[in-house]
Amino acid sequence: MDLQTLFALLAVLLVLVSALLMLVLDNMIGAVAASGVVSLGVAVLFVLLHAPDVAMTEAVVGAGLSGVVLALGLRRLGLWRLDAGATRQSAAGDEPDA
Amino acid sequence: MRNIASLLFTAGLAFLLLVIAAQLGFGEPPMRIGGDILSQAPAEVGATNIVTAVLLGYRGIDTLGELSILFAAATATGLVLVRGRKDCEHHAEEPPGGFILRTGADLLFPLLLVVGFYIIVHGHLTPGGGFQGGVILAAAFFVLVLARPGKDGSGGMSHTAIAVVEGLAGAGFIALGLWSLWDNGDFLKPMLGHGVMGELLSAGTLPLLSLAVGLKVGAELAGLMTQLAEQPATAQHPHQHPHPHSEDGGS
Hints:
The complex is a heterodimer. By secondary structure, chain A is mainly α. In chain A, 82% of the residues lie in helices and 0% in strands. Chain A has four helices and no strands. Chain B has a domain at 61-69 and 114-228. Helices cover 63% and strands 0% of the residues of chain B. Chain B has helices at residues 2-23, 33-45, 50-58, 60-82, 99-121, 130-147, 159-184, 206-229. In chain B, helix 2 packs across helix 3 (50-58), helix 4 runs parallel beside helix 8 and helix 6 runs parallel beside helix 8. Chain B is globular. At the A-B interface, helix 3 and helix 4 of A face helix 6 and helix 8 of B.
């Protein structure tokens, strides 16, 4: 197995694991961070496929911009909690407003 | 019931995609234009980055369409977010970002600016271009807003200045297209000769178009994020939670 395949496998593994984490994490901030990691892994894959333009866009938009927008959205909705239990409680409390 | 419906929908979508994929010849591109562009673009446009040559040269009007889509999306989001801002009677003071965030922001801001402008003006030479560089510029300004939110959370960013930059950049892109239309009858055709390939000032109007795209995207996204970061109208929901901004310091 050459080095490139190894890197690609690692990136795919990273993407899959963080995509799963995004689904199962109770902590909303953690889920947003995991979505950024998914984009970073995909950007690595794009680099390995010789598409640096697309990789740059993916890293900048997927890992940077959308993470910031999602985090700001969390803050606006009052879901910005660092511990999972409080997130759940506050989510239930905020439901009528949403 | 809903689960079954979404399962059916997913299965249908997968079936459609599989049918489409089965009809495509594997390893055979359905269109041959890519090879032609690859072989002709360097001599025709004079850009070493073929992607930018396609985006701003061969498909310039598509980029204009993309810009207008982005503009419409940012405007619509702004409309939704600004609604209710007037009802907000008191602005709770946003806590400042803390020492590490402020120092890091001061350190990062010029670097991010340089990287963003580098990617924009080298769009015709190296990977990247107006869009990627523009997003980095927006991120640079947003780092400042995060570190010093100020009174209303906008960090002293002026919406008027953002709108002026955005409008001028968009108008500049269209003006370059109209100039080309007036000069040789083709909208958005690269002009001003090719120059020496690989130099910063080469590929005719492509760097100018790239700069216009970068400034427009950067201003649009910076405005969007500033609007998102500004204080929401808390007066309407007094029972949301007692300390709405007490835990935002780490953001």
